[in-house]
């Protein structure tokens, strides 16, 4: 069977790549080995976000301003009890993916794809003879799976990865999380709020070092306040049989845990693809290298999403797949991939960022000025009762263009998109000064953070000091 495009993988990258090409009239086949579509978003990310919403509810986090009303948990529940809405959400998401592909007349082939030659794919299914498909263009979007480094590289009840933990029928009293990246931190904050005693262990000595340092410090504080024990610059050398488990740390300390979640990175799902038949090879972690047009070493074979490694986010995976198709089929409607990548971390409280941090601006020698606004000084922030939330904007001191936005607090992941759009359109301070925002709304924080930045810029000029290169520790609200 001949197609214009074969897509390997029905996660978000495969779905968006397939739909994009089909939208522009290409004949598309998509191969998915799992009985259901949606990939990691459906199987892990959505169940996990559902758990987060439940945690926010049962812990009364969203009712903190309703003084006198007690939303304490009545009895000890298991993770599965908290996942009541998961099935409906996952089913709904998978249905949306299937419907989207169906609307675009994409032919779906259930089974495992592997290369026969650079243009031919074999689809193997347990209950059917193999099917052979060929195409001018192939998009590899086969995603990734959790990486279990030693001493966790064995299947033991009680040792989970980020995929399996959301479905575990347990609620451990003592939980050790190995890996302090975004996923490890998200798990830590949610499980601590649900009443687990959580220890988060990470080999790095800095906490989420890609975040703006003020946001990282506040997030770290809030993790500590919910009872999470944070062990940075620490490695696990051995783990006993269990549960309960004894983890031997490189400091010589021993840590007891009833369950362990290993969130120590991911590996690409390329081992079943027979890449050698296409003249391709993955790196040691199973990831494929691509150029700016998402071409592999074989120009007609593109790759997008988690299988190409960093940043391994659903948001960027979808854009990569769309751009791969734009280049492959010379579609004119979109010229380039987004230059800015937002990050959202669904911890409690959530945080988000886009663009430069103070650290990166300093490293790159960009003169900048910072403006801050706090939820507690904002009418809606007061109503919500989020005292710790804040927005920090970083403007280029020369022309007051917005070059970075950082946020911690409720709806931060939504609100950062305001900064993102301003930056995408080269917006300056004037955008926020001129805008009339809804009241009461958290969006207003952008206006007040901008006033703060203008005041600081003026002060810097009056005092004749170099603008921007020092205020990292100044946390005075505007
Ligand atoms: C706990 C967790 C939370 C996350 N939270 C966020 C978040 O908040 N925001 C965000 O942007 N991202 C988040 N992510 C990351 C996001 O889920 C991934 O970046 C995204 O799902 C990658 O999509 P993909 O299509 O590249 O791969 P996948 O979703 O992994 O899909 C790949 C598909 O290919 C199929 N496949 C593999 N090999 C073959 C083969 N040989 N033949 C046929 N089919 C094959 C697989 O079965 C799978 O369905 C999170 C991830 C995790 C684990």
Helix content: 25-40%
Radius of gyration: 24 Å
Average pLDDT value?
90
What structural category characterises the helix and strand content? Answer: alpha/beta
Strand content: 15-25%
Give me the number of helical elements: 12
- Strand tally is 22
Report the span from N to C terminus. Answer: 65 Å
Uncertain segments of ≥5 residues (pLDDT<50)?
66-71, 468-478
What does the main sheet amount to? 7 strands, mixed
| Bound chemical compounds | flavin-adenine dinucleotide
Apparent shape: globular
Core attributes:
seven-stranded mixed sheet; single chain; 478 residues; 23% strand; five-stranded parallel sheet; alpha/beta; binds flavin-adenine dinucleotide; disordered C terminus; globular
Summarize the structure in words.
With 478 residues, the chain is of the alpha/beta class. Helix content is 30%, strand content 23%. The protein has twelve helices and 22 strands. Strands 1, 2, 3, 4, 5, 6 and 17 form a seven-stranded mixed sheet that branches. It has a five-stranded parallel sheet with strand order 8-15-9-10-11, with helices on one face. The protein has a five-stranded antiparallel sheet with strand order 18-19-22-21-20, with helices on both faces. A hairpin with a 2-residue loop joins strand 5 (120-125) and strand 6 (128-140). It is globular. The termini are far apart. Residues 66-71 and 468-478 have low confidence and may be disordered. The structure holds flavin-adenine dinucleotide (FAD).
């Amino acid at each position: 069977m001949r197609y214009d495009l074969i897509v390997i993988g029905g996660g978000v990258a495969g779905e968006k790549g397939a739909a994009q090409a089909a939208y522009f009239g290409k004949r598309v086949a998509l191969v998915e080995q799992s009985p259901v579509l949606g990939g990691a978003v459906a199987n892990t990310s959505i169940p996990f976000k559902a758990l987060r919403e439940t945690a926010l509810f049962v812990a009364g986090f969203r009712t903190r301003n309703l003084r006198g009303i007690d939303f304490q948990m009545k009895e000890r529940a298991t993770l599965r009890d908290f996942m009541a809405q998961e099935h409906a959400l996952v089913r709904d998401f998978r249905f949306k993916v299937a419907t989207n592909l169906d609307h675009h007349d994409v032919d779906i082939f259930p089974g495992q794809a592997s290369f026969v030659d650079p243009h031919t794919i074999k689809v193997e299914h347990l209950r059917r003879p193999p099917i052979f498909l060929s195409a001018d263009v192939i998009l590899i979007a086969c995603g990734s799976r959790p990486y279990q480094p030693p001493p966790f590289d064995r299947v033991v009840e009680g040792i989970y990865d980020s995929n399996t933990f959301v479905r575990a029928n347990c609620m451990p009293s003592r939980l050790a999380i190995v890996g302090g990246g975004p996923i490890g931190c998200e798990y830590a904050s949610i499980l601590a709020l649900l009443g687990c005693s959580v220890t988060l262990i990470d080999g790095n000595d800095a906490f989420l070092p890609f975040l703006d340092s003020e946001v990282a410090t506040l997030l770290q504080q809030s993790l500590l306040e919910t009872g999470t024990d944070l062990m940075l610059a620490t490695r696990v050398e051995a783990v006993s049989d269990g549960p309960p488990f004894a983890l031997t740390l490189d400091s010589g300390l021993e840590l007891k845990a009833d369950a362990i979640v290993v969130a120590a990175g991911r590996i690409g799902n390329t081992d079943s693809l027979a890449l050698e038949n296409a003249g391709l090879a993955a790196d040691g972690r199973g990831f494929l290298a691509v150029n700016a047009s998402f071409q592999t070493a074989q120009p007609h074979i593109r790759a997008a999403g988690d299988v190409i490694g960093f940043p391994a986010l659903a948001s960027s995976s979808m854009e990569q797949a769309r751009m791969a198709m734009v280049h492959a089929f010379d579609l004119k409607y979109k010229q380039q991939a987004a230059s800015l990548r937002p990050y959202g971390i669904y911890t409690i409280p959530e945080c988000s960022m886009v663009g430069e941090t103070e650290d990166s601006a300093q490293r790159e020698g960009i003169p900048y000025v910072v403006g801050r606004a706090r939820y507690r000084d904002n009418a809606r922030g007061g109503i919500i009762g989020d005292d710790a939330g804040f927005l920090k904007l970083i403007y280029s001191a020369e022309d007051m263009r917005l070059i970075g936005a950082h946020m911690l607090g409720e709806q931060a992941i939504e609100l950062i998109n305001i900064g993102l759009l301003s930056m995408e359109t080269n917006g300056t301070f004037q955008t926020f000064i001129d805008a009339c925002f809804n009241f009461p709304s958290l969006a207003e924080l952008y206006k007040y953070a901008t006033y703060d930045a203008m005041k600081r810029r003026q002060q810097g000029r009056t005092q004749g000091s170099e603008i921007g290169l020092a205020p990292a520790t100044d946390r005075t609200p505007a």
